[in-house]
Amino acid sequence: MAGDQSEATPLNGAAYFGTEVREWRVHLGLSQRELGEKATYGQQYVAKVEAGERLASLEFAVACDKAFGAPGTFARLRERAARRGYPEWFEPYVRLEQRATTILDYSPALVMGILQTERYAHAVFRKAHPRDDLDVTAEKVARRLKRREVMEVENPPLLWVILDEACLRRMIGGPEVMGEQLAHLLREAESPHVTLQVLPFGAGAPASHFAFNVMKFGDDEPDVLYVENPVSGQVIDSAASVADANVTYDRLRADALSPEASLALIRKVMEEWIS
Question: Within 10 A of 122 (CB to CB), how many other CB atoms are there?
Fold first, then answer.
């Protein structure tokens, strides 16, 4: 139960919550079917929650509080689990992102997560995981939007983003969604803490074909490089790898349009989407 967790507590939010449900259920001698009946959910739903395959709904958490005689406990655990709901491999990045002083991002295909609108993020997740329940997609979108809080603190990081022109022209979610997304980029660029550049098609072969970002922290703490593939992500603190990434970013920055010309192009493409 909550006070008996081992050092092997799962980092994934859904698995974290599911482990607690299983511990309490077994402690009270209930089967999954019996818990499901008490909570008015099916046995299969309980099994998926306990396996960490889905983050339980708030309604299920409240029902667990009643079934286990633990008022408020599982509602609070569910809230905590939602904050920890990123994939295990992504959590190190999120923690670093929250305390970086500078974030240098290169996005060759999709707008980076912090700058995505709700409908754009929804379209991205549905395309990648079309068989997910809609509530699962909604939870993923909510976590992505929560990352915006990084830019809402008193001293946010400098966020410098280079977007390949493909990010502006690839239709994600339909013309209306794209128009809304590009309008959001223009609003975000009004902040002195956000700089956007577009790498135009006319620049030729890019210095990198892969997305990456470099995070800086100050106070003599070394920079780190973050790269991602379709199934996982990796934080790299090798000085040589980070130095190479910084050089690559400088090359991308040199080939990109100026911030002013980039915003003009974003505005132009936005008008094309909404016309």
Answer: 20
